[in-house]
């Protein structure tokens, strides 16, 4: 058996690791840690960007839905300008200072906007519809927009 495997019993070297082995292990570990740290930091930035985009979309869609719910069943609608409309019983719906205001009160708190501002553009579309467009702005940059034509079920504009 001794001939097949060379020396069968070897005495383990009890001196431990050499300095060169220690340096190689530290170099490999530092490369792995640097790579993992880079991946984690870039993932964190991407996650922050996606979360901000989703929040902007939530704000735009919520404002759009609120306005649609108010105007779709109205029996009176006057478009004062592209940022302001008057609904049933003289209730005013407008964007003022980048916020949605209904009947003189902010619809959403300042926490909801989180540094964003809103812009609404509403105009007549045919005899029984309005074209509604909502833009969400972060600073000077538009971060999200939505809009469509909303048919008015109980109201028709008089022919011009």
Per-chain topology:
Elements: H1 19-71, E1 78-81, E2 84-87, E3 91-96, E4 99-102, E5 105-106, H2 110-113, E6 117-125, E7 129-138, E8 141-151
Bulk shape: rod-shaped
Query: Biggest sheet: strands side by side, in what order?
Result: 1-2-3-4-5
Largest sheet: 5 strands, antiparallel
Number of strands: 8
What structural class is derived from the secondary structure elements?
A: alpha+beta
How many helices in DSSP terms? 2
* Spans of at least 5 consecutive residues with low confidence: none
Structure description:
The chain is built from two helices and eight strands. The protein is α+β, with helices and mostly antiparallel strands and 160 residues long. It has a domain of 95 residues. It starts with 18 loop residues before the first helix and ends in a 9-residue tail after the last strand.
Summary, kept brief:
By secondary structure, this protein is an alpha+beta fold. Helices cover 36% and strands 31% of the residues. The strands form 2 sheets. It has a 5-stranded antiparallel sheet, covered by helices on one side.
Keywords:
2 helices; single chain; rod-shaped; alpha+beta; 5-stranded antiparallel β-sheet; 160 residues
